[in-house]
Give the backbone structure.
Amino acid sequence: MKYIVSNLKANFTLKDMEVYNKALSSIKTSLDVIVCPSYIYLNMLSDNVSIGAQDVSQFKKGAYTGEITAKQLASIGCKYVIVGHYERKKYFHDTNQVLIEKINNVIDNKMKAIYCIGESCTELKNNEVLASLEYQIESVLGSLDKETLANVIIAYEPKWAIGTNELPTTKAIINTVKYIKKHIKNKYRVELDVLYGGSINEDNIKNIKTIKEIDGIMIGASSLNVNSLISILNKL
């Protein structure tokens, strides 16, 4: 396992973030700990974690009030950017073309894009998981050149597992991640790292740890408590 991503979403006041960040400074691990707070807290993160952004503008620069560009993120030391999170697609209606533009902007500015894919509950029930993931891969990654694609990390997050305290069986995660890696390698001739995310917590991290096929994890709700995040780290 290489990465642990903490997605703090739209949480924390400045005081909350200061307390959280102080605790982060004590972390000692060989993993790349990527913390993704709200934009306004990015340049205050502890030196022993990597700076990650939760999203990025599809535009390179210009008169786009309220947008944060990839160039701006890179200028403050951001290393990773989450693109295509389920919540962005659901609430902000990011299209595949928008995601392609965001990923290109991220990688053009020497950062890595963490591209999120995952099936819905309906797709799971209808045995359409692999078909759905294949579509999400090809409709976005298929438009990238090989050099750009090599700087993408896949985050497999089943939509139905986000914030529900439910997650796939260990066997299901293994089989799905194997499929994702094999499909990308066969289709695009590149090998990409794949993370798992969705309802990871202190109780199930021991099982997640046994899955050698994944290259890291993405944590949402459980990472809001910094002690929980550190506990998860200590169990990896």
Summary: Strands lie at 3-7, 32-36, 50-53, 80-83, 112-117, 152-156, 194-197, 216-219.
